[in-house]
Write a structure and sequence with these properties.
- The chain has about 425 residues and is α/β, with parallel strands linked by helices.
- Helix content is about 30%, strand content about 25%.
- A hairpin with an 8-residue loop joins strand 17 and strand 18.
- Helix 2 packs parallel to helix 9, helix 5 crosses helix 6 and helix 8 runs parallel beside helix 9.
C-alpha cells in the first residue's frame, strides 16, 4: 500500500502524518488517500482501453458512499453502480452524470424506480419477470421509456465467501440463463421498455480469473443467441471487478489481464462494455486509525483493547475478514508477541484479530487497521450508542475532514418522546 508508508518512523497517508491526524481529529477515524483512489480507477480504465474495449467503469457505490470519494471518481469520468434511491441521490450530488448510472438490485421500490426515471439513468439491471412488469407499468404511467438490461445468473461459483457470492443457482440475484431469451424478447416487445443488453455479477472478492472467464463467456454466448433471434443487444455489463489481496501472501490478477478476459469473451461482438468495481477501487486506499485503550492478559492470552469497534468496521465480525494491523509509530524492536486486538463493545465477536504478531504496544499508542476503505464506514452503525466516526481525505500534504463525528446531542435530537412519556411535571397541566 504505497499510499500509506513510514516516514521518519511515523506512518503517513501520502504526505500527512497519521499520528498528527489521530491527535487533531481524534480516534477512531477513517483516512482515505485520494491519489490511491484515482490510481486504482485509472488502472481499470487503462486495462480496458488497452484491450480495445469501449467501456464504462461504473464505481460500485455500496463499497464507500462518501460524497468526496464519489466526487474524486466522478472527476476521472467514472459512472456509478447503485442499489438504492439513496445511492442515486448521493452519486448525482457528487457529480456523477445520470446517464452513467446503472441501477442494480433485486428489490427496487416503485418510488425508487420513479426517482431513477426522473433522473435519466443509463439503465436498470432488471432481475425478475415481476420487475420487468413493474418498471414497464411505471414507465408507461409517466410517459417515458425505461432503459433496461437483463441480469442473468450464470450459475458460476466464484469460490468466494458464501455471504458475498451472487452468481450461483439458489442465490437471489438475476434470472436463470434458460429463462433469459424469453424474458429478453418480452422486454423487446414492450414499447415502454428499451432493452440495452445483458448484465451479470458473480460475487465479490474474487482472486482468480477462471470464474470470470466462465461467466463472461456465458454472457457473450447468450448475447450471440439473442442477436441470432433478431433481438438488439448493444451493451454487456460484466459486473464487479477484481478482489483485493488483504493478506501479504495473496495476489490479485492485474487490471490488464481482467480486460483481456473480457475482450476474449466478446470476440467479434460489437458491444459497449460496463464493469462495476467497488471494493478494488477503494479498499486499499483507506485505513482505520484507532488508539489503544488498555492491554490485559487472561489465561495466557494477551488482549490489546482499542477504541474502534465492530460497529465501526464490521467485516471481521461478519465475514471473519482479515485486515493487517500495525503501529503508527514504527517499532524500535523486531520482537513480537501474539495478541488479540479487540474493541470495547459488549459482544464476543468484537475482535479485529486473534493471535496476531505485534511489537510491544501500550495504552495511548495508535494503531492502523489496513485496507479499510471498502465496506467500512458504509456498514457502520451506532450500536452501544457509539456515534459514527469521522472520515478524512488526504491529497499530498493536505487533509480535510469529509464527514465529521456527530455529537451525542445531535444523535439524541433525531428522536422524540411520545406525549404519554412527557415529564410527570407537565402531565395534566392546565
Amino acid at each position: 500500500m504505497t499510499a500509506f508508508a513510514y516516514r521518519d518512523g511515523v506512518l503517513h497517508a501520502e504526505g500527512v502524518s497519521l499520528a498528527h491526524l489521530a491527535d487533531e481529529v481524534g480516534t477512531p477515524l477513517y483516512v482515505y488517500a485520494a491519489g490511491a483512489i484515482e490510481a486504482s480507477y485509472d488502472a481499470y480504465a487503462r486495462g480496458l482501453a488497452d484491450a480495445g474495449l469501449r467501456a464504462l467503469v461504473a464505481y460500485g457505490v455500496k463499497a464507500n458512499d462518501n460524497l468526496a470519494v464519489i466526487a474524486t471518481l466522478a472527476r476521472r469520468g467514472a459512472g456509478a453502480d447503485v442499489v438504492s434511491g439513496g445511492e442515486i441521490a448521493r452519486a448525482i450530488a457528487a457529480g456523477i452524470v445520470p446517464g452513467r448510472i446503472i441501477y442494480s438490485g433485486v428489490g427496487k421500490t416503485p418510488a425508487e424506480i420513479v426517482q431513477a426515471l426522473d433522473a435519466g439513468i443509463r439503465q436498470f439491471n432488471v432481475e425478475s419477470a415481476a420487475e420487468i412488469d413493474t418498471i414497464a407499468r411505471i414507465a408507461g404511467d409517466h410517459g417515458v421509456t425505461a432503459p433496461v438490461a437483463l441480469r442473468v445468473n450464470p450459475d458460476v461459483d466464484a469460490g468466494t465467501h458464501h455471504k458475498i457470492a451472487t452468481g450461483r443457482k439458489g442465490d437471489k440475484f438475476g434470472v436463470d440463463m434458460v429463462d433469459a431469451p424469453a424474458l429478453y424478447a418480452r422486454m423487446a416487445a414492450d414499447r415502454r421498455l428499451a432493452p440495452r443488453g445483458l448484465a451479470l455479477h458473480i460475487g465479490s472478492q474474487i482472486l482468480s480469473l477462471a470464474p470470470f472467464r466462465a461467466a463472461f463467456g456465458a454472457l457473450a454466448g447468450l448475447a450471440r443467441t439473442l442477436r441470432a433471434e433478431g433481438l438488439p443487444v448493444a451493451t454487456l455489463d460484466f459486473g464487479g471487478g477484481l478482489g483485493v489481496a488483504y493478506r501479504d501472501d495473496a495476489e490479485a490478477p492485474s487490471r490488464a489481464d481482467y480486460g483481456r478476459v473480457i475482450a476474449e469473451a466478446i470476440g467479434d461482438l460489437l458491444v459497449d462494455v460496463a464493469i462495476e468495481p467497488g471494493r478494488s477501487i477503494v479498499a486499499m486506499a483507506g485505513v482505520l486509525v484507532t488508539r489503544i485503550v488498555a492491554t490485559k492478559e487472561s489465561h495466557g492470552t494477551r488482549f490489546v483493547v482499542v477504541d474502534a469497534a465492530m460497529n465501526d468496521l464490521l467485516r471481521p465480525a461478519m465475514y471473519d475478514a482479515y485486515h493487517g494491523i500495525r503501529p503508527v509509530v514504527r517499532p524500535r524492536t523486531e520482537d513480537e508477541s501474539l495478541v488479540d486486538v479487540v474493541g470495547p463493545i459488549c459482544e464476543s465477536s468484537d475482535v479485529f484479530a486473534r493471535a496476531r504478531p505485534m511489537p510491544p504496544v501500550a495504552a495511548r499508542h495508535v494503531l492502523v487497521i489496513d485496507a479499510a476503505g471498502a465496506y467500512g464506514r458504509v456498514m457502520a452503525s451506532c450500536y452501544n450508542a457509539r456515534p459514527l466516526i469521522p472520515e478524512v481525505m488526504v491529497r499530498g500534504d493536505r487533509a480535510e475532514i469529509i464527514r465529521r463525528r456527530p455529537t451525542f446531542e445531535e444523535s439524541i435530537a433525531l428522536e422524540a418522546m411520545p406525549p404519554w412519556l412527557a415529564p410527570a411535571s407537565t402531565q395534566g397541566a392546565a
